[in-house]
Design brief:
By secondary structure, the chain is an alpha+beta fold. It has 15 helices and 23 strands. α10 packs parallel to α12. It binds uridine-diphosphate-N-acetylglucosamine.
Length: about 425
């Protein structure tokens, strides 16, 4: 089992390059099978979730040609089976995007019902409500969602809760429905816009992505395209907080600064200097971080996927902060791990009160989920002494070369797979 071992206390300095957005990639890969022509996707992040998604697609007959680490050509002409195996959905919830894509293209799909996950119960009722509104019959059989229709018809659909997954899934199915669909109360996240732009580049007719209302006129066929995925704003934000927490000065390259506004605004509030360039942002940490209150919200609000990272910063800030998690109910597990490093916090319902301490100290901790795991690595980089992070498989789901990129900024971190390797690291870094 691999672990990260970290010798903390080094300020991160230098430049880091951000890859393609994982969450956009997952939607785009699913949407790519909606044409029988070849689709070329560039700036694909080489992370576990994306690779599992490609395996799930290969299993139903999609031809996948990985041209290089970040480029893939796909062809959905040979799809012989519209049912996804549980093995894949178990590893990656976003394979539910294949439901919308297959339903749109073939008017039928079968995908195992995803269970809960480490950050909360994560229902998909809104996705199903959308498919039903478009005319599909949706049933749950033997643990799978089966959706089928003679034909899909455009409708007016109101989403009760703002949901990224439901917005993307319904948008995909509606792209190949007959007539006009209007989706209201949509998610406005950059990756919703990226999937819409991708579908439009294949000949779909989607307007309004990035606003509350998306209007779609269904088309009969989609065609070949070449598309480059947007940069990952959560990966970028993670390195920005790594700079802030370690007293560093980091230029984060290949980003769209507009997508980082909520993160930048919080970094300024806790005392960092942030400089914005066309495709980069520079974060310079202050002597001491200040406290702040944070509430996670759908985009353009502060992202729930950046909540653990700011939580770590606030655990070392001057004063007491209040963090409110309004999207997922179970996203404070990292605070229990952080307590082992000396952090002081109290969680009541969806609110955490974090009282900053002078210093965190290294400890053996586990990654509870993807973003929490990355945040705990940041804590280890900022702490005095040695930190060992277990269960890093979660982190590898969404961060490409995490340890390597951090080493490029001067961090003393290594991925080890035995006690012996860990001891060697400690001897080497002192
Ligand atoms: C996506 C992201 C995830 C991010 C989240 C919120 C992907 C692959 N994952 O997850 O990293 O944390 O957006 O920005 O893009 N809900 C319902 N019913 C539904 C669907 C959602 O009640 O049918 C609720 C959820 O429980 C949650 C809220 O809506 O409280 C938002 O969830 P949603 O935006 O759908 O998250 P995901 O798309 O699963």
């Amino acid at each position: 089992m691999e672990q990260y071992i970290i010798r903390g206390g080094v300020a991160l300095n230098g430049e880091v390059e951000i890859g393609g957005a994982k969450n956009a990639a997952l939607g785009i890969l699913a949407a790519a099978i909606m044409t029988d022509e070849e689709v070329l996707i560039e700036n694909l992040p080489d992370v576990r979730d994306v690779n599992v998604m490609l395996e799930a697609m290969a299993q139903i007959g999609v031809k996948i040609d990985r041209r290089d680490r970040h480029t893939v050509a796909l062809c959905g002409a040979g799809i012989g089976d519209v049912s996804i195996e549980y093995e894949y959905i178990k590893k990656i919830r976003a394979s539910y995007y294949l439901l919308g894509a297959l339903l749109g293209k073939y008017k039928k799909a079968e995908v195992p019902l995803p269970g809960g996950c480490n950050i909360g119960s994560r229902p998909i009722d809104l996705h199903l409500k959308g498919f039903k509104a478009l005319g599909a019959k949706v049933s749950i059989r033997n643990g799978s969602i089966c959706a089928a229709a003679q034909a899909l018809h455009g409708r007016h659909i109101f989403l009760d809760t703002v949901s990224v997954g439901a917005t993307i899934n319904i948008m995909m199915a509606a792209s190949m429905a007959e007539g006009r669909t209007v989706i209201e109360n949509c998610a406005k996240e950059p990756h919703v816009v990226d999937v819409a732009n991708f579908l439009n580049s294949m000949g779909a007719n989607i307007k309004g992505a990035g606003t509350d209302v998306i209007r779609i006129v269904g088309v009969e066929k989609l065609h070949a395209t070449e598309y480059s995925i947007i940069p990952d704003q959560i990966e970028a934000g993670t390195y920005m907080f790594a700079a802030a927490c370690t007293g560093g000065d980091v230029l984060v390259r290949n980003v769209i600064p507009k997508h980082l506004e909520a993160t930048i605004s919080k970094l300024l509030e806790i005392g960092c200097e942030v400089e914005e360039f066309d495709t980069a942002v520079r974060v310079k940490a202050p002597e001491k971080l200040s406290c702040a209150n944070v509430k996670t919200l759908p985009y353009p609000g502060y992202p729930t996927d950046m909540q653990p990272q700011i939580g770590v910063a606030l655990a070392m800030a001057e004063g007491t902060s209040i963090v409110t998690e309004s999207i997922f109910e179970n996203r404070f597990k990292y605070l229990d791990e952080l307590a082992r490093m000396g952090a002081v916090s109290k969680v009541e319902g969806n609110t955490a009160v974090i009282s900053g301490v002078e210093k965190l100290t290294g400890a053996r901790i586990s990654a509870p989920d993807l973003r929490a795991g990355a945040a705990l690595v940041i804590a280890g980089l900022a702490a005095d002494g040695i930190t060992m992070v277990d269960d890093i498989i979660y982190i590898q789901r969404g961060y490409e070369n995490f340890d390597q990129k951090l080493r490029g900024l001067g961090a003393r971190i290594e991925c080890v797979s035995s006690e012996r390797e860990a001891r060697k690291f400690v001897l080497r870094v002192g």
